[in-house]
Specification:
The strands form five sheets. The protein has a seven-stranded mixed sheet with strand order 8-7-17-18-19-16-20. Strands 10-2-1-14-21 form a five-stranded parallel sheet, covered by helices on one side. Strands 13-12-11-15 form a four-stranded mixed sheet, with no helix packed on it. The two termini are about 35 Å apart. The chain has about 475 residues and is of the alpha/beta class. The protein folds into three domains: about 190 residues, FAD/NAD(P)-binding domain (3-Layer(bba) Sandwich); about 150 residues, Polyamine Oxidase, Chain A, domain 2; about 80 residues. Helix 1 runs parallel beside helix 9 and helix 1 runs parallel beside helix 15. About 30% of the residues lie in helices and about 20% in strands. The chain binds flavin-adenine dinucleotide. The site of flavin-adenine dinucleotide has 42 residues, from helix 1, strand 11, strand 16 and helix 15.
């Protein structure tokens, strides 16, 4: 999921700092951290061992820099998370990032580098909306129409185009920078569709299709971003060909982490950072105590939902702080369900990969590369449905998941064995889905990516290809290049 692509302008960064950092010293109310080597004039501190922090640290390390990664959790990967112990028969499931696009050049480059293969995923073959089962081929051929007022025959995604065509034409005629075009950023997708005469059903469809990918609802998405996605890029649709890393996506962060070895400090949660006359001091907590470590530069590779609570003294610029406080994220939950048998492959099944307006939103056979007879259906639930399910107990979430499966595949209850959810907004060290283009936020990414010496900023939210693994690595490489260039 998470396939948004936009362009942003980036500027080159500030002059090299001449400050040097030396000894590891105790935080006022703590004991000395003896786990680290003492003294290094060029230590670069990277906060967060997601793909952004890992790729940045990996390239800095390869270039000969002394790098230390501080990670709050006890494992690498952040929002790339493969659950392995929750299922029988060595089955596993992606509870975070899942798909690699053919255009994901950084993911593909590092998979090749670490000798990981990418497995093509099967395409969507079923739709279950408004209690109707629709075969994807029947939809494509026009034999069956979506039960939504105003829906065109022959397609699932892109139903909104006709209502925003005049804006698409305007961009083509006047260019992206025209004032009229840029003013669309003040409007939500919902407002623009209403203005264009779209029936409520088309807005509902947009919710279950595109807004689900963005983990939000049309009233919180920028109309500018929607219009540009139809002009400049090929967005996600029922025809997108996707892949994932064979054996589990966590193999990519683990490969980076293995190379970095003890340069990653797990269970090290950063609380605050002070710049001093000799460099910077970073304060962190372990399970047992608080410590300080010194460095010369610091790379933030955490979502802004976390960054906004890390105290930086003296503070970051006003524009940066504003964007950190206000950047939009949605809500997202994955639910992995283990079944005794792969009933979705039977002849009378609607399919093995289904778009739906039930709280599951996208539900598909995940374990295609794993031997049966057991199998895992995985759901990608987002926006209001994720928010609603997120407020419930695990037990209630499973009841709803099970009931939704039964509506889609009538015999699913007979084979249900177990289920588990991961609601990313309740994860203490993430508190988010992935970033999105909110209303009036067109300049945010450029500001969020800008260096404020000695601070550098990585993370998917700073990337051109935001909301993706590829964007996370793209941002890590941008920052490592900027540090190396100086
Ligand atoms: C459910 C879901 C589905 C997705 N689907 C896809 C997909 O199909 N394809 C795709 O390409 N992308 C997908 N994404 C997006 C992708 O996962 C992210 O864009 C990417 O992994 C973000 O990487 P990052 O390094 O920027 O941040 P993160 O992975 O969030 O890394 C941040 C790290 O910082 C750590 N941290 C937080 N606070 C502190 C602190 N105070 N001190 C130290 N460490 C801290 C965290 O523990 C975490 O490890 C999905 C994401 C989710 C949640």
């Amino acid at each position: 999921m998470a396939r948004n692509k936009v362009e942003l302008t980036r500027r080159s960064f500030l002059k090299k700092s001449s400050v040097s950092a030396t000894l590891l010293t105790a935080f006022p109310y703590s004991v000395l951290a003896n786990a680290f080597n003492v003294s290094d004039d060029n230590r670069i501190l990277v906060i967060g061992a997601g793909l952004a922090g890992l790729s940045c640290a990996y390239e800095l390390d390869r270039a000969g820099y002394n790098v230390m990664v501080l990670e709050a959790k006890s494992h690498p990967g952040g929002r790339v998370r493969t659950y392995r112990d929750s299922f029988a028969d060595n089955l596993y499931a992606e509870m975070g990032a899942e798909y690699v696009d053919s255009s994901d050049e950084y993911v593909k480059k590092y998979c090749k580098h670490f000798e990981l293969s990418i497995l093509p995923a099967k395409q969507y073959d079923g739709i279950y909306v408004r209690n109707k089962h629709i075969n994807m081929d029947d939809l494509r051929s026009g034999k069956v129409k979506l039960p939504f007022d105003g829906a065109m025959r022959g397609k699932l995604f892109g139903q909104e185009v006709k209502y925003i065509q005049k804006w698409i034409d305007l961009v083509k005629k006047e260019g992206i920078d025209s004032k009229k075009v840029q003013s669309l950023d003040k409007l939500s997708v919902q407002q623009l569709l209403k203005k264009g005469g779209a029936p409520n059903d088309i807005i509902d469809l947009y919710t279950y299709l595109n807004a689900t990918e963005s983990t939000t609802v049309p009233s919180k998405m920028s109309a500018l971003s929607m219009v540009l996605s139809h002009v400049k890029t090929s967005g996600f649709s029922e025809n997108t060909v996707e892949g994932r890393i064979l054996g589990g996506n966590d193999m990519l962060p683990k490969a980076f982490a293995k190379k970095l070895g003890s340069k990653i400090k797990y269970n090290h949660a950063v609380n605050s950072i002070n710049t001093t006359s000799t460099g910077l001091e970073l304060n962190f907590s372990t399970k047992t105590n608080n410590y300080t470590v010194k460095g010369i530069k610091c790379v933030f590779a955490v979502p802004t939902t976390i960054l906004k609570n890390i105290k930086v003294n003296p503070g970051l610029s006003r524009e940066k702080s504003y964007c950190i406080q206000n950047l939009s994220y949605g809500h997202v939950m994955k639910i992995a369900m283990q079944f005794q048998k792969r009933f979705w492959d039977s002849n009378n099944s609607i399919g093995q990969r289904v778009f739906t307006d039930t709280p599951l939103r996208r539900v598909y056979h995940f374990s295609i590369d794993q031997p049966g007879p057991r199998g895992i259906l995985l759901s990608f639930t987002s926006g209001d449905d994720a928010l609603k399910l997120g407020s419930m107990s695990e037990n209630s979430r499973m009841k709803i998941a099970k009931k939704s499966c039964k509506n889609i595949w009538s015999d699913s209850d007979d084979y249900w064995e177990n289920g588990i959810s991961k609601y990313w907004n309740e994860d203490k060290w993430i508190k988010a889905s992935y970033s999105l283009k909110g209303i009036d936020q067109k300049g945010y990414r450029g500001i969020l990516a800008k260096t404020e010496e000695p601070f550098y900023f990585a993370g998917e939210h700073t990337a051109i290809n935001y909301a993706s693994m590829n964007g996370a690595i793209e941002s890590g490489i941008r920052v490592s290049n900027n540090i190396i260039k100086k």
